[in-house]
Design goal:
mainly alpha
Length: 177
């Protein structure tokens, strides 16, 4: 338990710490509490392109046109795992680049031996993302095939079940009755 003197010192020190002041410092600090999965607010981390992520999301939603919550979940899983695969490939390339830039001889074997544990970790994450992608793709195609068997293709789907995709300003979603 802290003494009264320690508590007083902590209060004084806390007044001196107001966080980052520069834009760069604030940007770095904003990533400190980054989480993944259900607790994440964003799949895009510093140095990644938000536009590329949104393009990827739009492409997958346009390709699979999810019509139910389950289908949307699986399309989102495809996007997430494709994004992770790209990230882990960049991480691996970054390890190689850093090693080659830090040595004079650039021996690939030496670089691999020095970072074998890192490469194994990246490889596990990459393989996991790719397996999860394949699982989600199989589940999605099966689910959509079953839906198409049970739904008359001439009937429009309920617009309330449409994806959360953003519509361009000139193309507005149909209004629900």
């Amino acid at each position: 338990m802290a003494s009264d003197r320690q508590n007083a010192a902590n209060k004084i020190n806390a007044q001196k710490s107001t966080g980052p002041n520069s834009d760069k410092g604030k940007a770095v600090s904003s990533q400190n509490a980054l989480k993944s999965g259900i607790d994440s607010k964003c799949e895009v981390i510093r140095f990644e392109s938000r536009d590329e992520y949104e393009t990827l999301t739009t492409e997958f939603h346009a390709r699979f046109r999810p019509a139910t919550p389950e289908e949307r979940f699986l399309v989102d899983a495809l996007v997430r795992n494709e994004w992770f695969s790209r990230r882990y490939m960049c991480v691996e390339a970054g390890i190689w680049t850093r090693e080659f830039n830090s040595t004079d001889h650039g021996a690939i074997g030496t670089a691999f031996i020095r970072h074998a544990d890192h490469f194994c970790k990246v490889d596990r994450r990459l393989n996991s993302a790719q397996r999860n992608f394949q699982r989600a793709l199989t589940q999605l195609t099966d689910l959509q095939a079953r839906r198409k068997e049970t739904v008359d293709e001439t009937e429009p789907l309920n617009p309330k079940l449409a994806s959360f995709r953003a519509f361009p300003p000139d193309e507005q979603p149909p209004l629900a009755a």
